[in-house]
Specification:
This protein is of the alpha/beta class and 319 residues long. It is globular and about 60 Å long. Helices cover 35% and strands 17% of the residues. Helix 6 links the parallel strand 5 and strand 6. The chain is built from ten helices and nine strands.
Amino acid sequence: MKLWHPTSENIWQGRNDLAEANNALRIFQTIKQPTRFSPEQFPHHIALLGFECDEGVKLNQGRPGAKLGPEYLRQSLANMASHDGHEWLVDLGNIQAHSGQLSEAQSALSDAVYECQNQKMRTLIFGGGHETAFAHGMGIYRAFPTQRVGIINFDAHLDLRNAPQPTSGTPFRQLADYCHQQQRPFNYTCIGASLASNTQALLDEANHLDVTIIWDTQCIDSMLDKVQQQIQDIINQVEIIYMTIDLDVLPIWQMPSVSAPAALGVPLERLLSLIQPICQSKKLQAIDLVELNPLYDIQGMGGKAAARLAWQLVHWWNG
């Protein structure tokens, strides 16, 4: 596997409570850690892969540091209690981007995702910048060439930029172009988007591509039932779901450690209520969490919030 390396040996550590009871288990004790990239050994499991890349963030004029996110998120997750669903996790290591080689890293991640999906694994990717989404999405489209794929993005930004070269702001425009070339439908929904963070040009592009947008101002208690029905309608329209979560969808007071923190955002408890039916739909095949930047975290706040989100996603994700 190109650009691959295993997870650092000292990452999966935590408190040992086995003297208390044989089921007093934590994630670091139940996650599987093969010594090589071997998805063929773990059908029906969840492949955890890191994408150590912020080349796209740099090109998008953002704050670099997200390449450190995968190991940081693993460390934050390691000591959490292991419950139903967490035993399916298999750490299959990381794809590492070299400076100035974004497309090579994206190609390597796409290949890794494609191989995992072909071996009947689901994929959970820890980014990295949101350039992760183009690679992850391509792997899903390649693995499911005839199925109706729906992309659900929880994000303050639409990430539909027109740019002379790919960045963390272009992944869904790139996937739309791919779908057009392959004569496949582009079914893209962005939830939690901020009107204040997206120009009219991006809204025009979204309208042109028939993108469904649910704004952050709609993700409030009084409108929650309506939004949940919209999400259910989206689930019903597709056969395969790829869910991508840019952690800047969370408000800055819960997630300071991203390239572009959100002044408003969608709080974690509300975000979870929107995500739960997607996880339990039996159509969800792929998830990524992106943009976690430990260089800007405050007392581990962002790492803890991201880990709690990842923990809950896996706990809800049907086998």
